[in-house]
Amino acid sequence: MTQDAVSTPRTKPASAVTVNAPGRLHLGFLDPGASLGRRFGSLGLVVDGISTTLDARLSSDAEDHYTAPPYARDELPRIRAHIDTLKRLTGKREAIDVRLRHALPAHAGLGSGTQLALTAGHAFAQLHGLALDATQLALALARGGRSGVGVAGFEQGGLILDGGPCSATELPPVLARFAFPGEWRVLLVLDDTRTGLSGKAERNALAELPPFPQSLAAHACHLTLMQILPAVAEHDFVPFARGVSELQEGVGHYFAASQGGVYTSPAVAQVLDWIGARYRAGIGQSSWGPTGFAILPSHDEAARVVAAARAAGVVGASLRLEIVKGRNSGATVIHTPTAS
């Protein structure tokens, strides 16, 4: 698919469709400085329990209609822009009714922008009987330019490693994908009073960073290939947690000047520093934050950590703590076929 025109095979159109796309954690870039020619490369995990959900159907009149809960109404112009782009590219001009039922928090490090674009795009394709996959939709809607984790996560879930983009017209290739162990849990530490960098501010921050040391890139790649991924494959929690924490520490210090510290939110930092000093956990911040995470070996251990942190008084009033699983499947789609 290009930004100018698209030729699409057809499937059977749906009269109505609901798309639910899970959030993701970005666990770290491997080489933001392109020391070997490819920039970025990233490790990410799709998580259950937080998602974007969108309903769509063709409109009964000539006007598009977009609705959302009050907290998510700022997302409606973005959805409209995505639908307008796809109308222009495909030539499908029918009016559409879209209801955003739930939305991932914007600019929180959970992949909200990519999942919003892909839910809207997938719904549009289903309604018009267009066989467009997540990769085609992402390219059309200008998503996935730095990390391929969100697009691959939409398709298949799990723990995903991508190789970084080789050009502006191709998505980063998926190098490895593993099912995340079902017994492990992710404690999300969310701060709704802050947002991470995005848009022009993000681009400016990346441009102003010093060169990423090749030695740090080599260490990040070594950690990922020879510690984190083997530990997931073998369900060996301790080296996995140690590897994720070490990867996050290196990347976090590199980005600290752009985000005000290793963590965007001091309140999140307080909780994660406290957990990291007392428990075996994979600790870090997803993308630009402010969302932080602690990966723990079981639900019971995660619940004990939450209770202990609250009892110790380190959980600030602005924070939400949620225990979620990794998700080893991608987006779900429920559609009603048109009458034969």
TrEMBL record:
It holds the Pfam family GHMP_kinases_C. Residues 84-148 form the GHMP kinase N-terminal domain. Residues 229-313 form the GHMP kinase C-terminal domain. Signal peptide: none annotated. Keywords: Kinase, Transferase. InterPro entries: GHMP_kinase_C_dom, GHMP_kinase_N_dom, RFAP_synthase, Ribosomal_Su5_D2-typ_SF, Ribsml_uS5_D2-typ_fold_subgr. This is Beta-ribofuranosylaminobenzene 5'-phosphate synthase.
